[in-house]
Amino acid sequence: MRTVRNGEATIGYRVDGDGPPVVILASTGRGTAEFDALAQRLVLRGHRVLRPEPRGIAPSAGPMDGVSFHDFAADVAAAIAAEGGGPAVVAGHAYGNWIARTLAADRPALVRGVVLVAAGAKVMPQATIDALTMINDPASTEEQRLAGLRLAFFAAGNDPRPWLDGWHPAVTASQRTARPLTDGDWRAAGTAPMLDLQAADDPFRPPETRDELRAQYGDRVTVRVIAGASHALPAEKPVETANAIADWAAGLP
Q: What separation in angstroms does the CA of 104 have from each of 16, 24, 112, 143, 181?
């Protein structure tokens, strides 16, 4: 694990492999250790993989109140700069796609392309948001949390038990409060190419929303759907996710 400073924050990040850089950002309240299989596959495909930890997940630390997506994006930018400055393909899982898009808008020279891994629809079903809140509640029983994971994160036949652990409620709270504090047109990811990598069974992304980003941003957006997965896409289908990222990255300028 390496560390880099960004103002008052210290950001820890893993580095694996050699080649064109791919940065992987975690989803709400979770760290990047669970992306080992995804990272290993990307390394086999010829990439150097960076995995910065969010503030609040050791060794990353820094202000967690009164911060915005721009602050979190600057943390990622510091890691990319420390490893040579990119430009990198930045793949954000779920919440992480918002930070990836913000980084592309704020620091375009560092970003070659953005991958939205299991990004939610513009309007997400309330039941899925409620499930995330419940899973992060220490008072929830294991049975309740498993039900929430099956509802919102894991497709039928995929084991949700590994995700009973690995939640950081303080990180979730900080990340959630960052959204209303974020200004600017971060959603467009500047002018970067985007891969909208969806899971076929993701309730955060109903089938009728498959093309909403392509309709808004045009040919900059490539849509690909992976079967047999839900919102925990990179944990459920790490090889397929890595291959989709590497295939798309190979076609970038």
A: 22, 14, 8, 40, 18
CATH code, domain carrying 95: 3.40.50.1820
Q: How far apart are CA 116 and CA 98, in angstroms?
A: 8
State which residues form the domain around 24.
Answer: 2-250
Residue found under tokens 């560092």: 110
pLDDT string in tens for the chain (253-residue length) = 999 999 999 999 999 999 999 999 999 999 999 999 999 999 999 999 999 999 999 999 999 999 999 999 999 999 999 999 989 999 999 999 999 999 999 999 999 999 999 999 988 889 888 998 999 898 999 999 999 999 999 999 999 999 999 999 999 999 999 999 999 899 999 999 999 999 999 999 999 999 999 999 999 999 999 999 999 999 999 999 999 999 999 999 8
Pairing mode of beta strands 2-6, 9-16: antiparallel
- Report the number of distinct structural domains present in the chain: 1
Backbone phi and psi for residue 140, each to the nearest 5 degrees, phi listed first: -70, 140
Cα separation, 228 vs 72, in Å, equals 31
Say how far apart CA 30 and CA 9 lie, in whole Å.
Answer: 18
C-alpha dist (Å) from residue 86 to 50, 154, 160, 222: 11, 33, 35, 22
